[in-house]
Amino acid sequence: MTKGVVAALVGLLLATPAHADRALLIGVGSYPNLPASLRLQAPEEDARRLAAALTSAGFPRDRLELMTATDGTPPTRAAVLASLDRLAAEAVRGEQVLVYFSGHGAQAPTLTPALEPDGFDELYLMLDARAWDGGAGRVPGAVLDKELAARISAIRAKGADVWFVADACHAGGVFRSGGADIRTKALDTKQLSIPARVSAPGDALPPGLAEAPVDPAGAGRLAAFFAAAPGALAIERRLPLGSPDARPLSQFSYALARAIAAGRVRSLRDLAVAIEATDAGIGGGAPKPSFEGSLDMGVLGLTPDRPRRYPLARAGRTLSMPAGIEEGFAAGDRVALYIADTRVGESVVLESGIGASRLAMPPGLPPGAAEGAAALQIVGDAEHQAALFAAIAPLSARGAAEGLEVTGRLWRPGASRVCPPLSADDPPGTRPVSMLALPALGQCDVLIATIANRGTVAVDVSPIYFEADGKVTGLGYVGGGSARIGPGEQRRIAVRALTQDKQGKPLPEGVERVAIVALPAVTRSPRDLRGAVGTVVTRSGALASLDVGAGALTYRWRVEKR
Asked: CB-based contacts of 208: which residues, under 8 Å, 6+ apart?
């Protein structure tokens, strides 16, 4: 089923699964050929942290290539292109390939106007990047967007799926809303001596580059995550917020690694929901990430919902933990303390914020043990679901939800172990259904709900999904879109029923629900509850008292074998 996730930074305990997926992680920040003022502190650590999150989550280390100035092959332009070519040569049908880049982005006037209607190439600056070379008409050491696209197309032509992630930007300007610790990852053209225009050879295309690529029959799927939408800025800042151990990290990559490590990786769309929910901690001026393509793909064959462990540090007479409300923690939660695989005690959460929590120091903890201990959150899914639904029930059909109209459609493609993907548009054969009298859903059935704002003011809408197995998650919007829905706007959500997994193992059957929680749009940025449903509602009761305008619409159905 399409499910939202809660972002987290964790250590995970699970045997490595058998799969053939691969990952290429590129982090470039030192830039020895550019002025020292242009060097970045975060990207190399971004790539290392993402590699650690993937391998801790069960991704095989020998299927991952890490490229930084100090890890593996230095990421020069030639080395990166060679690695991409190697991925294309070795790609096999059915695998998923992650290509990740963190570093500087820029724009330069194009020599191929037939491929760039706006007249500019987007550049990804590698380790050997230099200032503009007028004779060659390019930025040495930079990989052009079209060069990258050609190699990704070659991978997909083999039938492999590609997940591309870019934590970079190519717009000038300054991000001013977050404070002195925030720095953009964009380069102004003047900083690289890039001219405003160049003499371009008409519509001629260089060898190896074609017009907009056409996907061949059987081509793999493509999904892309961008730290900043076109014209916006990617940033680095000191993270976790407020932690004494904070260090310069890229905001987007930080949220991505936390979400992967959390084990809530049922689909790329769910991962996107987790990232968007985490970004609320920056404030209303935060850059807005962009998520495109086949977001219902899995995440590198990783298994979701693993036990999650969080490293602890001594903070005076208490313990600090780099995990907060994004991970579902709230004051009063009880957690178990471990050193390696040995349980050494139990503690309670004293207070929790975004990215950090403070725990009570348990009595009898051996001297020095806190620095080597980890906390494991102990929460029952069924208990969470019951408490959450009880908190939402009083909000039904009032307040900000009064202006919402929800209509449903049902797609029944036929039961199979591997269900067909859901397209951006409703597939042929979908039919209208009443959201107030939903039929039972069987294996592979998809319920598609359209949420339309028929009111006169904007509202912040968080669809929360109650699964048959007791889990509670937030749902991503099909085709993207923020939690804020203006008058006349609409969003779509989709829930896929599963009664067995891909190996034929039975999955829980029973009643499922979706609650569409609406809040008045009274803040600069949307209030998105999907990434913290366990905390905001279950124990603190904060949702019911968040403001008097809160409201919700709830719908239910049954999942069963047919």
From this structure: 150
| Overall number of domains in the chain | 3
At residue 544, the pLDDT reads 38
CA dihedral (437, 457, 479, 385) in degrees, to 10, reads: -50
> Residue 270: in which H helix or E strand, if any?
helix 268-278
Domain match, 268 and 320 both: no
**In 120-181, where do the E strands start and end?**
120-125, 142-144, 161-167
Residue 461 banded pLDDT, cuts 50, 70, 90:
very high
State whether 227 and 123 are in the same domain: yes
Give Cα 272 distance to the centre of its chain: 3
Q: Measuring CA to CA, which residue among 313, 319, 332, 327 is closest to residue 355?
A: 327
Range of the domain at 541: 384-559
In a domain, 459, yes or no: yes
Last residue of a domain, one of 378, 395, 421: 378
Query: What residues are paired with 186 via a beta bridge?
Result: 105
Does one domain contain both 371 and 390? no
Statement to judge: residues 178 and 217 lie in one domain: yes
Distance separating alpha carbons of residues 206 and 429, to the nearest angstrom: 45
- Kindly state the helix (H) or strand (E) to which residue 462 belongs, with its residue range: strand 459-466
Q: Are residues 243 and 369 in the same domain?
A: no
Interatomic CA distance for residues 192 and 189, integer angstroms: 6
Residue 415 included in any domain: yes
Question: Is the predicted pLDDT of residue 397 greater than 70, yes or no?
Answer: no
Report the distance separating Cα 482 and Cα 461, nearest Å: 9
Q: What average pLDDT score do residues 246-274 get?
A: 80
| Lowest mean pLDDT across 116-120, 174-178, 487-491 | 174-178
| Distance from C-alpha of 283 to C-alpha of 256, rounded to nearest angstrom | 18
CB 134 within 8 A of CB 194: no
Burial class (CB in 10 A: 0-12, 13-18, 19+), 356: buried
User: Which of helix, strand or coil describes residue 341?
Assistant: coil
Provide the 8-state DSSP code for 350: E
Query: Does residue 400 form part of some domain?
Result: yes
pTM of the prediction? 0.63
Question: Do residues 149 and 124 touch, judged by C-beta distance below 8 A?
Answer: no
Q: Per mean pLDDT, which of 328-332, 406-410, 473-477 is the most reliable?
A: 406-410
The C-alpha R_g of the chain, in whole angstroms, comes to 24
Would the pLDDT of 451 be above 50? yes
